[in-house]
Write a structure and sequence with these properties.
This protein is 41% helix and 22% strand. By secondary structure, it is an alpha/beta fold. The chain has 4 domains: 31 residues; 193 residues, FAD/NAD(P)-binding domain; 217 residues, 3-Layer(bba) Sandwich (FAD/NAD(P)-binding domain), CATH 3.50.50.100; 34 residues. The strands form 8 sheets. It has a 5-stranded parallel sheet with strand order 5-2-1-9-20, with no helix packed on it. It has a 4-stranded parallel sheet with strand order 13-12-11-17. The structure holds flavin-adenine dinucleotide and 1,4-dihydronicotinamide adenine dinucleotide. The site of 1,4-dihydronicotinamide adenine dinucleotide has 28 residues, from α8, β14 and β22.
Length: 509
């Protein structure tokens, strides 16, 4: 009895302590401490963007060392790996957004945030020109932000390769607004296809969902869309069952070129079972409001130009440079041979500059443009800047001590200062010993629909390829753990439960 009683008491006390700890955590989260205002006497560090690279830098940066200014048209961080799930309502978009204001309010020293787009960076004058692109504009909607140090983390825009009609008729999948537009368009196509007296050919066209680009974005979206149809659409709108079709169009001979051959075959086989059509070796050349024109290469090498009618067209053919990045590259002679973005050195300094760094999709450091790379680059820069601040501080102390040594009244005092200088110099050497950026590849993961995922994982200096339902659970737990905050994790988890129990919402917003 006494053992039972003690076990009960211990459980009670542990639960109480746990609840207290969670409560304290929530209280701290809701009531951030006052922050010292930015100190203009310190160097101004301007960070462009609130994506993977910039936010990862801000997370680890000791903001009290600099006068930090963040500029981005997006006042939130977006967890892009789960964005394809927002196109069908498996996850609600707000669950993968984290307000940048909340995050910045928890930094030790205040950070200025301007919701604006950087339109031009004048490297010589050390000025960023910014524009308020939002709907509501004040009397002043464009101004300048001077910088001592600048980090460019503006990501990339959607590549269209100048193909006519893409921007007018296609939908992209990069931002929250894109996912919302796709969700609305899917439902619009389904409702319009069931309109009274609709022509059978037109029904077929409206229910033909075409995805261009067989990279991970295209593949994940096609998988999510087929899931939506299988689990929900055909139940609630049985009239569309016969004609609903998802087609993935890819110019190369196979989809997911960055994955191993075994996983490419597995993905293609899974798509076939899910009745998703894959059209490889098919290059889209023109887009109109109702069909795409694509050139496909037959087994005999002959090229055929065909028209593919569509109701929904999602364009996922990779990244292109943002105009502000292109313009900066033109100002720096050392960037003239770089095509895919800002060429950086091993410390992520933009080549040809001293005080400009670049992270993520806008930087070319010989790694794929992924969140994984951007996050590691951002974290590296935070360490670098924290160390630079420490170095400055130690150097100031050393200068002060050298003066003190000269003014020391006797040998004993001089010896004491000499010892202090030696200690500081040792610390300085330690602090300065920071190696260059090294990317550590953790692997690639992609959802391919019908509760299956593929993973190429780097493990114990080897590679390990796997696909299927177990990998899907791994995919889910990996992305859940990688979400920005506990709040995001809870919301995403609840969304998954909600869509499993009640199904996805088929109302059109
Ligand atoms: P972003 O995260 O795109 O952030 C750029 C920031 O700059 C944004 O805040 C933007 O608003 C801001 N900005 C834009 N223009 C300006 C301007 N002119 N001035 C100031 N700020 C500006 N990668 C993975 O590793 N794993 C995945 O599973 C994965 N899934 C993905 C799914 C989708 C649908 C997409 C689209 C991408 C996915 N990626 C994934 C790739 C990953 O999202 C990018 O590589 C990553 O976002 C790059 O980070 P970044 O910081 O360079 O840019
Ligand atoms: P991508 O560049 O990886 O793939 C684009 C595909 O479109 C290419 O295979 C290309 O051959 C094809 N294409 C280009 N033009 C075409 C045309 N006219 N007609 C037909 N096909 C055409 O682009 P994606 O998928 O948008 O990914 C961008 C980056 O984000 C990549 O680095 C990717 O690794 C990363 N990402 C990673 C994810 C993951 O790890 N799960 C998910 C989504 C993106």
């Amino acid at each position: 009895f006494s053992v039972l009683r003690w076990t009960w008491r211990l459980t009670y006390l542990t639960t109480l302590a746990g609840l207290g700890w969670v409560g304290y955590g929530i209280w701290i989260m809701r009531n951030p401490e006052d922050q010292p205002e930015p100190d203009p006497s310190k160097k101004t560090l301007v960070i462009l963007g609130t994506g993977w690279g910039a936010v990862s830098l801000l997370k680890k940066l000791d903001t009290e060392n600099y006068n930090v200014v963040v500029v981005s048209p997006r006042n939130y961080f977006l967890f892009t790996p789960l964005l394809p799930s927002c196109t069908t309502g498996t996850i609600e978009h707000r669950s993968i957004m984290e307000p940048i204001r909340n995050f910045l309010r928890h930094k030790k020293a205040a950070v200025k945030f301007y919701e604006a787009e950087a339109t031009k960076i004048d490297y010589e004058k050390r000025i960023v020109y910014i524009n308020d692109e939002s709907e509501i504009k004040g009397d002043i909607s464009s101004t300048e932000v001077p910088f001592d140090m600048l980090v460019v983390g503006v990501g990339a825009e959607n590549a269209t390769f100048g193909i006519p009609g893409v921007r007018e008729h296609g939908l992209f999948l990069k931002e929250v607004g894109d996912a919302q537009r796709i969700r609305t368009r899917i439902m619009d196509c389904c409702e319009t296809a069931t309109f009274k007296d609709q022509d059978p050919e037109e029904i077929k066209r409206l229910l033909h969902m075409v995805v261009v680009g067989g990279g991970p974005t295209g593949v994940e979206f096609a998988g999510e869309l087929q899931d939506f149809f299988n689990s929900d659409l055909k139940k609630w709108i049985p009239d569309i069952t016969e004609n609903f079709q998802v087609t993935l169009v890819e110019a190369l001979p196979n989809v997911l070129p960055m994955f191993s051959k075994q996983l490419i075959d597995y993905t293609e086989k899974t798509f076939k079972e899910e009745t998703i059509t894959i059209r490889t070796k098919t290059m889209v050349k023109n887009v109109t409001d109702k069909y795409i024109e694509a050139e496909s290469t037959g087994p005999d090498g002959k090229k055929i130009l065909e028209r593919i009618p569509y109701g929904l067209l999602v364009w996922a053919t990779g990244n292109a440079l943002r105009p502000v990045v292109k313009d900066l590259m033109m100002q720096i002679p050392a960037q003239k041979d770089s095509r895919r973005g800002l060429a950086v050195n091993e410390y992520l300094v933009v080549k040809g500059t001293e005080n400009v760094w670049a992270v993520g999709d806008c930087a070319v450091a010989n790694y794929a443009p992924t969140a994984q790379v951007a996050a590691q680059e951002g974290a590296f820069l935070a360490r670098l800047f924290n160390q630079m601040a420490k170095t400055n501080e130690i150097e100031k102390q050393l200068a002060h001590l050298s003066e003190a040594q000269e003014k020391a009244p006797n040998k004993e005092a001089r010896d004491q200062v000499f010892t202090d200088i030696k200690d500081l110099q040792k610390r300085l050497r330690r602090v300065k010993r920071m190696g260059p950026f090294e990317y550590s590849h953790q692997g690639s993961l992609a959802y391919i629909g019908s509760e299956k995922a593929v993973a190429d994982i780097s493990w114990l200096s080897g590679n390990f390829a796997t696909g299927g339902t177990l990998t899907y659970f791994f995919w889910r737990s990996a992305y859940l753990s990688m979400c920005f905050s506990t709040r995001n994790r809870i919301l995403v988890g609840l969304d998954w439960i909600k869509s499993k129990i009640f199904g996805r919402d088929v109302s059109r917003e």
